[in-house]
Write a structure and sequence with these properties.
Elements (H helix, E strand, L loop, with lengths): L12 E2 L9 E2 H5 L7 H17 L4 E5 L6 E6 L4 H6 L20 H8 L3 H13 L5 E3 L4 E2 L5 E8 L8 E7 L1 H21 L11 H17 L3 H31 L12 H4 L13 H8 E4 L2 E4 L1 H16 L3 E7 L2 E4 L8 E2 L2 H7 L7 H10 L5 E7 L2 E9 L5 E7 L7 H14 L9 H28 L9 E5 L5 H10 L2 E5 L2 H4 L2 E5 L2 H15 L4 E9 L2 E8 L6 H13 L16 H10 L5 E6 L6 E8 L2
Parallel strand pairs: 18-20
Antiparallel strand pairs: 1-4, 2-10, 3-4, 3-8, 5-7, 6-7, 7-8, 9-10, 11-12, 11-16, 12-13, 14-15, 15-16, 17-19, 20-21, 21-23, 22-23
Length: 625
């Protein structure tokens, strides 16, 4: 077996078998006569698979009938350091095509990665239960050495005697690092909430919440209008102090410099040492073709010493449940697996549309693919209506390669959630206008609902701060409920809020994280108020497969320079306090709103000037699934 080296062929080895040195014509390989020009297209796709798996980020291979012995392996660029560090000395990792290899098994590889023995036993049971043609992503992440984590994908082939199982092991440490930052920030927030406001002010947020809750109960039972006005004003003063304290905590965390995993771009090189590239022979695409392909009697053939490696790579990629893409040179983008298998595109925009990247994800996908010739990266975007995790890295010559898989991890932006907590406190500032018993009756249910939501958010923070944190559960929410917070703010401020949406849209039930869209629309309405708006128009409707919501105000709007800055903040995923529309604001509301929308499949938030001379239009859209 061969593991990745920076200057030798990676993997592509058949265990314990002599290599055939005779050339293999492509027509013999496919078992039929090829049409004119078909051999050239087939050869390019087969070489694309060979180049990709030889330099693959995941460690991939095919298992024998026992479900453990390795018949063929390749790749491992993501974590070849672990495989090298724990490889037995008798295995020569620099061999290109060894005549024989010491017996090695999948269980040995998992052991080298540091996977627990009980997990390895469980994986063996899963492999034994796989039916031909079935695929499975092992039910949870595998924990390994150096706090690294891995994902295992298995597939049992239909078309090979015995139903061999092929596998791929992917490093998930980059995505997991975002989750670790989430837990760290949750702990920081909870500690700050339980700490005194200052040396001269011993109050803390948790104690203040309890006091506000007790004071509200007293307010609800009061009957004298004069006492009601005094108590309501006193509670409102405490609410304002709490909101200001929450802003201070947000600013302190942002000043600390931790990105909290909210940027959307996982820095692979922070979680995984740089690995060698260009493992295949030849310095470029044409050079690789010249080394591996030959013409025999005018017909294209694979040179004997590479025939098995190329054929095995092609078989693996063709049977993969993942989407593999390779760009061996500019202007050639090969989709090697998935629904568009065999398609070759001439530009990145054509590739993005061809593999069915969602409309709202296309700009991000094009930017991601365009960056891969220079550095490794990983991200998430929507493909064919599903959220996907995407890995990519430089490849042969000036090219790149990428892999797309169903999303396995679910990142949570703690800052956005915490910003929503601040907005909940701000909702209670309605107490400033409570003067009579009738006022109390009008706001009582809303205030009780806000208190309940605050308790729930704090409970979620405590869960996320735990070492094995889960994530807030998705629930079904009625679209009409998303506008409740916005209506409260318009009532508090005297703005006119005009929501225009068909009944069937308002009655739609959408799967989302509870309360986040209500927080998002509330934030947009509050920002409009602070920009001087008196009227806000909200239009909601379904266009094709997308739910679209437009929020248009008649406030001051944004200058072209500030609008460009806002676009940059949303694209890069980094807050900017200069964008704050109100005194003491954190500047994070706009980004938090964009990222809440981004958690939907193909979700996107766009900004543009409102029609006319004043105001701002914020357009939200996401795939309805």
């Amino acid at each position: 077996m061969s593991f990745c080296t920076s200057d030798k062929l990676c993997g592509l080895v058949l265990a314990g078998e002599m290599m055939d040195t005779s050339n293999l014509s492509l027509s013999a390989l496919v078992g039929r006569k090829l049409f004119a020009g078909e051999d050239d297209a087939l050869a390019r796709l087969m070489l694309g698979a060979y180049v990709l798996v030889a330099d693959a980020r995941p460690f991939i291979g095919v298992l024998g009938k026992d479900g453990d012995s390795l018949l063929w392996t390749a790749g491992g660029a993501e974590f070849c350091d672990l495989l090298h560090a724990h490889a037995p000395r008798e295995i020569d990792t620099a061999q290109v095509q060894p005549r024989s290899v010491a017996p090695l098994r999948l269980s040995d590889v998992l052991n080298r990665l540091g996977v627990a023995p009980e997990e390895i036993d469980d994986i063996a049971d899963v492999i034994g239960l796989l039916d031909p043609g079935s695929a499975v992503s092992y039910r949870h992440l595998l924990r390994g050495r150096e706090q690294r984590s891995f994902r295992l994908v298995l597939f049992r082939r239909r078309d090979i005697a015995g139903g061999h199982v092929q596998f791929s092991i992917h490093e998930m440490t980059g995505f997991e690092r975002g989750n670790a930052k989430m837990r760290e920030i949750s702990r920081q927030i909870l500690a700050a909430m339980e700490s005194p406001f200052s040396k001269n002010d011993p109050r803390n947020l948790i104690a203040l919440l309890n006091k506000v809750e007790n004071d509200l109960n007293d307010l609800f039972s009061a009957t004298d209008d004069r006492q009601i006005a005094i108590r309501a004003n006193h509670i409102a003063t405490g609410v304002s102090a709490a909101a200001n304290r929450l802003v201070d905590i947000l600013n302190a965390i942002d000043t600390d410099g931790s990105d909290g995993g909210h940027t959307g771009k996982d820095r692979v090189n922070e979680s995984c040492p740089p690995s060698g590239i260009h493992c295949v022979l030849g310095n470029d695409w044409q050079g690789t073709q010249d080394l591996i392909l030959a013409r025999v009697g005018g017909e294209l053939a694979l040179k004997g010493e590479y025939a098995h490696a190329v054929r095995s790579a092609h078989e693996f990629v063709s049977n993969s449940t993942l989407i593999f893409i390779i760009a061996p040179c500019e202007g050639e983008y090969y989709v090697l697996s998935g629904p568009q298998r065999g398609e070759i595109y001439s530009s990145i925009p054509d590739l993005v549309r061809g593999i069915e990247v969602g409309v709202n994800s296309r700009h991000g996908a094009e930017t991601f693919f365009s960056s891969l010739g220079q550095h490794e990266n990983q991200t998430r975007f929507a493909v064919a209506g599903e959220n996907m995790e995407v890995w990519g890295r430089p490849g042969l010559g000036m090219g790149w390669q990428a892999m797309i898989a169903d999303a396995y991890t679910q990142g949570v932006d703690v800052r956005a959630m915490f910003h929503g907590l601040k907005n909940l406190w701000l909702h209670m500032q309605v107490l400033h206008v409570v003067k009579t018993r009738a006022d109390v009756q009008e706001v009582r249910d809303a205030l009780l609902g806000v208190i309940q939501k605050i308790h729930r958010r704090i409970a979620e923070l405590k869960v996320m701060a735990q070492p094995n944190a889960g994530f807030p559960r998705k629930i079904r929410e009625r679209v009409a409920g998303w506008f409740q917070g916005a209506r409260r703010i318009s009532d508090e401020t005297g703005m006119v809020l005009d929501v225009r949406a068909p009944e069937d849209v308002l009655n739609m039930n959408i799967v989302c994280y509870g309360g986040q869209m209500e927080d998002t629309l509330s934030e947009l309405v509050r920002n409009a108020h602070h920009s001087g708006a008196r009227h806000i128009f909200v239009n909601a409707g379904v266009k094709g497969r997308y739910l679209e919501i437009e929020v248009v105000d008649d406030g001051r709007g944004m200058s072209p320079e500030k609008l460009a800055q806002a676009h940059k903040v949303i694209e890069e995923g980094r807050f900017d306090p200069v964008l704050s529309a109100r005194p003491g604001g954190s500047g994070y509301g706009l980004l938090g709103a964009a990222q809440s929308v981004g958690r939907f499949v193909d979700g996107q938030l766009r900004l543009e000037p409102a029609a006319g001379r004043r105001g701002l239009k914020v357009a939200l859209s996401f795939r309805v699934t």
